[in-house]
Amino acid sequence: MIIIQLNQRQLKIIDIVKENEPITSESIAANLNVTRATLRSDLAILTMTGILDARPKVGYFYSGISEINLVGNKIEEKTVEEIMSLPVVVTKDINIYDVIVTMFLSDVGSIFIIDENENLCGIVSRKDLLKATIGGADINKIPIGMIMTRTPNVVVTHKEDSILLATKKIIEHEVDSIPVVEYDEKDKNLMKVIGRISKTNITKLFLEIVDN
């Protein structure tokens, strides 16, 4: 059995739920004197590992920490490399219109931007592209590099990272997906995109584990 290492706040959340179940996330946040947003990643981890059970419009229940929580163990064993999908990338000089077409043909929520040396230099989401079209600018002439979120402000993960770590990054930063990268051996500021981890990847993993 793999022992799940919980932080102090997660342990406090468990105690609060034990004493007050069912309890809403608002009430848990009030007990800890923090915001609901602050607890989002902690509650996600506790429910994904099976320690807490969440029921819509009811609240959280304590399920227990035992060997029965096999879902948490199976997730803990998985690495990003095992479930990542192929990335969708474009170069930073491509115009916004072509990126919009690429996004919808590929059916992804984010596209990763690379430079002339194929290193990650940015990312754009559906929201970024929507803002660009609403502005009234000529999207056939503006390069995507003008509106992308640039590195080092792009959240990334690595193929050897755990799924829980990647999931926590997605939840905390409220993004649809994050690039899986490998650092350049000579310059750690340069990164090659080798994959993509999205909410869809993670959902498919949970479904696979539960079905089995």
Automatic annotation (TrEMBL):
CDD domains: CBS_pair_CcpN. InterPro entries: CBS_dom, CBS_dom_sf, CBS_domain-containing, HTH_11, UCP026546_HTH-CBS, WH-like_DNA-bd_sf, WH_DNA-bd_sf. The keyword Transport does not apply. Keywords: CBS domain, Repeat. Residues 83-139, 148-212 form the CBS domain. Pfam families: CBS (PF00571), HTH_11 (PF08279). PANTHER family: CBS DOMAIN-CONTAINING PROTEIN CBSX2, CHLOROPLASTIC, TRANSCRIPTIONAL REPRESSOR CCPN. This is Transcriptional regulator. It comes from Romboutsia maritimum. The lineage of its organism: Bacteria, Bacillati, Bacillota, Clostridia, Peptostreptococcales.
